[in-house]
């Protein structure tokens, strides 16, 4: 380089935002972690999933922290329980929904704005966050803030230790076919059955077939307003909201 030639300019530093998956815990805002609260207080974009015309449960939990609605970024599901999860229309619509949401959030992240996605329970446990994480994780920095899972909140509020000694715990979605539920229940020491909703009659029948109905505990809206905890055998109807589950405590080794 000659003395009178200008020095080359340093390359511009591009700073992107960070994608946060924030575990919101099982429902009671007192179970939010310190890290979750700090991210919620500072992130300029706060994403929450919801059904059309309703607030998502994760957003409801955040009422204890959020005071600035201008930061909110709702993502409205095209379907929730209207179609079966393996229905081709459902699969296609959800894939397009997550693709579009990821593109919209990428615009904010690319502009240097942090994005926090509110997730019921823990973000990496049956969470919608994972679908956006999969689409964005190779392009932007990511931090996942773990949260108290719904099942942990439920067995705590039920006063029911779930595993003892060498018990094996199996977590099952109630959406499985009856035969698969019964088979897996027969082969485990303790179980949590999630996503009950309209599947409760099938779950009850599978538990009975596996010889576990008398040990099963039904928990509805655990740690939330309207919480119910009763033996499943004593539940007189087959009505169950989405935020309900069945616990089958283990009976393993105890000193």
From TrEMBL:
InterPro entries: 4pyrrol_Mease (IPR000878), 4pyrrol_Methylase_sf (IPR035996), 4pyrrole_Mease_sub1 (IPR014777), 4pyrrole_Mease_sub2 (IPR014776), CobI/CbiL (IPR012382), CobI/CbiL/CobIJ_dom (IPR006364), Uropor_MeTrfase_CS (IPR003043)
CDD domains listed in its UniProt record: Precorrin_2_C20_MT
Keyword terms, alphabetized: Cobalamin biosynthesis, Methyltransferase, S-adenosyl-L-methionine, Transferase
The keyword Transferase belongs to this UniProt entry's keyword annotation: yes
Alphabetized Pfam families for the sequence: TP_methylase
The keyword Phosphoprotein is assigned to this record: no
Domain of life: Bacteria
Record-given protein name: Precorrin-2 C(20)-methyltransferase
